[in-house]
Design brief:
It comes from Streptomyces himalayensis subsp. himalayensis. Residues 169-211 form the Zinc finger CGNR domain. It is a single chain. It is built from seven helices and four strands, in the order ααααββααββα. It has 217 residues and is mostly helical. β1 (126-130) and β2 form a beta hairpin. α3 (82-104) packs across α4, α3 runs parallel beside α5 and α4 (109-119) packs across α5.
Length: 217
């Protein structure tokens, strides 16, 4: 899936249930893949609404939870049911209101109250187990329920927005009609797009066409 810039440990504090990968380069989000790596799991959740609904089925929700590192890859999430989809979309809406409110200087009181309420619950409890090659890998003590998973995402949002360093790195993509928000961990903090290959490339193509049109004129 598409990935964001390399995550910096100083700016990315996650709850024990959340594990982030740190790919070097963002790629174009695809509606057929479960994850866009925005640098934080709560921001990854926001990206599941663009360019189309990515949490449209239980199977896609399970895939996103694993791809985002919310649960280890082989976690069955056997209790998942349609109500989980509504719960994750509702949290997505609240986190979106809260993050955009912070960027705009608005106080999204209702969203803050809801995210805080969800963050009260215990996230999935991790444990270390031996893989076949003898290395330790992350597993969970139990197959988590919806409340625990929502709590992990809500806690990540709380931690992000209460960390001044991380909060200062929040960026909106400058691409035309792109609503994605990401954590800018690039050198110099000059990243402009969610994805250099998608929005960035479209901007470069548009710029080239404008120059070509001026030259012809």
């Amino acid at each position: 899936m598409a990935s964001g810039a390399t995550s910096a440990a100083a700016a990315t504090r996650t709850s024990p249930a959340v594990t982030h990968t740190s790919p070097a380069q963002a790629a174009a989000p695809s509606p057929h893949e479960p994850r866009f790596d925005a640098g934080r799991i709560c921001l990854d959740l926001l990206a599941t609404a663009h360019p189309e609904e990515r949490l449209g089925s239980i199977e896609r929700l399970r895939a996103w939870c694993a791809a985002a590192g919310l649960v280890p890859p082989d976690t069955p999430l056997s209790a998942a049911e349609p109500s989980w989809l509504a719960a994750f979309r509702e949290l997505r809406l609240r986190v979106d209101e809260l993050v955009r409110g912070e960027l705009d200087g608005r106080y999204a009181g209702g969203a803050l109250e809801r995210v805080n309420a969800l963050a009260r619950w215990a996230p999935p409890a991790p444990r270390a187990v031996r893989a076949e090659d003898g290395t330790l890998v992350r597993a969970l003590h139990d197959d988590p329920g919806c409340t625990a998973l929502l709590a992990a995402v809500a806690r990540d949002a709380v931690e992000l927005l209460t960390d001044p360093v991380a909060r200062a790195r929040l960026r909106r993509c400058e691409g035309d009609n792109c609503p994605l928000i990401y954590l800018d961990t690039s050198r110099g903090r000059r990243r402009r797009w969610c994805s250099s290959e998608a929005c960035g490339n479209r901007e470069r193509v548009a710029r080239h066409r404008r120059r070509a049109a001026l030259a012809r004129a």
